[in-house]
Amino acid sequence: MFISSAYAATSTAPSDWTSFVPMIVIFVLFYFMLVRPQMKQAKEQRAMIEALKVGDEVATSSGILGKVTKVGDNVVSLEIAPSIIINVQKSAVQALLDKGTIKAL
Prior knowledge:
Blueprint: H1 2-9, H2 21-50, E1 57-60, E2 65-71, E3 75-81, E4 84-89, E5 93-97, H3 101-104
Antiparallel strand pairs: 1-2, 1-5, 2-3, 3-4
């Protein structure tokens, strides 16, 4: 009598790999929704920084707008006002502006 009730109480356990499927799906979605776009944006930012040349108008991460006067290995010189030149790290350059943007302001 006890043996038959013990067999009736057991249920089939799901296989080990099926319990990981939702977690794998979440990781794949996380990669395609967050990681991959961030890597693409970082790649575009590096390409923009490497393509900087004298005369480009840029905005820095601190909000300073200026015209590139000199490009070094790690430093860019920006003219932020007539005869006022500052040096910033290339990594601080956030965006390349259209020509004439600074004069329009």
